[in-house]
Amino acid sequence: MAEEGERKAALEVQADGTDGNCVTFVLHDEDHTLGNSLRYMVMKNPDVEFCGYCITHPSESKINFRIQTRGALPAVEPFRKGLNDLMGVCQHVLNTFERSMKEYRAQREEEMQ
């Protein structure tokens, strides 16, 4: 267990074999919110043969996230792309929400006058 003041790594990588096509990423302090969203984004890649995750135990906030790719593509590439794509989707949702809130507040202000 990490001592007070120490931070444990947010990500561990466990590779099977030497080619890097089948990798388990261990994500600390995460749950189904990230796990299922990231799995969806990674599975959109046609070079990904398998992608899944599991929560090790309900009392732990740790995800085992496994990716297996076809061909010579290392598993870390679709993982990185999935994270970047998910960040883009989240940014789009945030921008849309903020724009809608701004329009709503302007409309309410006009109604009050």
Automatic annotation (TrEMBL):
<keyword id="KW-0804">Transcription</keyword>
<dbReference type="InterPro" id="IPR036603">
    <property type="entry name" value="RBP11-like"/>
</dbReference>
<feature type="domain" description="DNA-directed RNA polymerase RBP11-like dimerisation">
    <location>
        <begin position="22"/>
        <end position="95"/>
    </location>
</feature>
<keyword id="KW-0539">Nucleus</keyword>
<keyword id="KW-0240">DNA-directed RNA polymerase</keyword>
<dbReference type="InterPro" id="IPR009025">
    <property type="entry name" value="RBP11-like_dimer"/>
</dbReference>
<dbReference type="InterPro" id="IPR022905">
    <property type="entry name" value="Rpo11-like"/>
</dbReference>
<dbReference type="InterPro" id="IPR033898">
    <property type="entry name" value="RNAP_AC19"/>
</dbReference>
<protein>
    <recommendedName>
        <fullName>DNA-directed RNA polymerases I and III subunit RPAC2</fullName>
    </recommendedName>
</protein>
<dbReference type="InterPro" id="IPR008193">
    <property type="entry name" value="RNA_pol_Rpb11_13-16kDa_CS"/>
</dbReference>
<dbReference type="Pfam" id="PF13656">
    <property type="entry name" value="RNA_pol_L_2"/>
</dbReference>
<comment type="similarity">
    <text>Belongs to the archaeal Rpo11/eukaryotic RPB11/RPC19 RNA polymerase subunit family.</text>
</comment>
